[in-house]
Structures are given as C-alpha cells and as structure tokens.
Amino acid sequence: MADPSIVEQRIREGLEGLEHVEVKLLTPDGRHLEAIVVCRAFEGVAPVERHRMVYEALGDLMDGPVHALALRTLTPKMWRSGCGVGED
Prior knowledge:
By secondary structure, the chain is α+β, with helices and mostly antiparallel strands. It contains 3 helices and 3 strands; from the N terminus they run H-E-E-H-E-H.
C-alpha cells in the first residue's frame, strides 16, 4: 500500500520549481493513485517527459507500493487557466 502523503513528499523533494501537488488514492488497496503536479520545470517539456520526471522523483515507490499512478502534469500557466483539471 502506498501512503499518498509519502508520494506527495517524494514529488515535493524531487521536482524543482514545484508549485502545487495533490495525491489521492483511487482504490482501497492503496496501489492505484492519482496525482496533479504543477511545476515550472514542465515548461516546454512534452507530457511523456513530464511523467518521467515525476516517476524519477518517486524512485523505488514505483517498483513496489505504487502499482499505477494516473498523472496530470501541468505548467503553472495551464493550471491557472484550468487546462487539464477535471479531465478524464
């Protein structure tokens, strides 16, 4: 089981320019989570690379406690405009 607060802490520690992060459980077993990550470092970076940056920050959590992580990785400008928030 992955603790959302630990996942959030790893993201906070691993991404420079982080402006906002939210992590929540999607399943009762704690292995499927969702995160919204807003970071200045995402400016000009393709979505797949943004995800890689988050996975890198999570390190070994992705090899064990976290089975699946739904990510919304946004630039601050996207976040302020509401882009990508609330979309499935």
